[in-house]
Write a structure and sequence with these properties.
By secondary structure, this protein is an alpha/beta fold. The chain has 12 helices and 8 strands. It has a single domain, classed as P-loop containing nucleotide triphosphate hydrolases (Rossmann fold, 3-Layer(aba) Sandwich).
Length: about 300
């Protein structure tokens, strides 16, 4: 799939409740099916991805195999920080600082430190960058980033730390991560939304923010859970006639009206979304799946929709 070619990192964000984690899983499946050795990263202690595949998760910080070419990991910022220190200063220093309560409090209090460690760990999981010998190499990292507000803090953390570090390994590491995030060839920025007022406005604002801070717009916006199209006027007349003749139950006309009203609202929000995005941003519409669909089946269905849409 050309959209994933040469990509090393895909960052997925969006307003809470829009299906961000499910879309991250579907992107992971689609990328792995295209032959990319892919790892999906969760943050903030979440371990939802393995459950979506019906797999028992490994401990925090350890990778869980989900299928061919596909794994997941929940990033533990504390463990990731110790890994980074060991890589920079050696195992003895890493153990000493890791056991230091003062150092732990310092890291916890430093503005943006946990966001920086998390995004750096996601960077490290990519091709040719593993900190330890014998660790699995991945072609592509899919980061299920926090909701838009917190996700923006994670995206700007490398620039902030590069500016305040002055020199040395922290500056060098921060600049490497920043270079990846600002490279539209090697990285991909994805927002997930539903066609409702707040998610759409937040997505448009995120796109403007990215252009200001990272000098690039969103690469892909996924409009998730879109309902079926509304009925035309002629179809509504036929439904009303069928209700009048008792061919259809009395509630059918009301249900049809509600469906058409919902479709009209979604159409208006879709137009607003299109007008607020850049011409080069791909807008992908994913239809709502039937209620009660199992998680694994849902991810597979969405992955197939992604593959079909992005291959056209």
């Amino acid at each position: 799939m050309k959209q994933f070619r040469n990509r090393e990192l895909i960052v997925v964000t969006g307003k809470g409740g829009v299906g961000r984690t499910t879309i991250s899983a579907a992107i992971g499946v689609a990328a792995a099916s295209a032959g990319n050795r892919t790892v999906i990263c969760e943050v903030s202690g979440q371990q939802s991805i393995p459950a979506a595949f019906g797999v028992e998760p490994q401990p925090l910080g350890s990778e869980t195999t989900l299928g061919p070419n596909l794994a997941s990991i929940t990033i533990d910022p504390d463990a990731a920080l110790q890994e980074w220190i060991r890589a920079q200063a050696g195992a003895a220093v890493g153990r000493a600082l890791g056991a230091s309560r003062s150092f732990a409090h310092f890291v916890a209090a430093a503005p943006g430190a946990r966001e920086m460690v998390t995004i750096t760990k996601a960077w490290e999981l990519g091709p040719g960058r593993r900190w330890g010998r014998g660790k699995v190499e991945h072609d592509l990292v899919v980061l299920d980033a926090p909701a838009s507000g917190h996700g923006t803090a994670m995206l700007t953390a490398p620039r902030t730390f590069a500016d305040i570090a002055g020199s040395g390994p922290v500056k060098q590491q921060s600049e490497r991560v920043w270079d990846l995030l600002t490279d539209p060839i090697r990285s991909m920025l994805v927002a997930v939304t539903t066609l409702a007022e707040l998610p759409v406005s937040e997505t448009v604002e995120l796109n403007s923010w990215l252009k200001e801070k990272l000098d690039r717009p969103l690469d892909l916006v996924v409009a998730n859970r879109i309902g079926p199209p509304g009925f035309s006027r002629s179809e509504m007349k036929l439904i009303s006639s069928a209700v009048d003749s008792e061919t259809l139950p009395s509630g059918a006309a009301k249900a049809a009206e509600l469906n058409s009203a919902r479709a009209s609202i979604e159409s208006a929000h879709l137009a607003e979304l299109r007008s607020g995005l850049d011409a080069q941003t791909t807008l992908l519409k994913l239809t709502e799946t039937p209620a009660g669909t199992e998680s694994s089946a849902l991810v597979e269905q969405l992955a197939q929709q992604l593959t079909n849409s992005l291959s056209n």
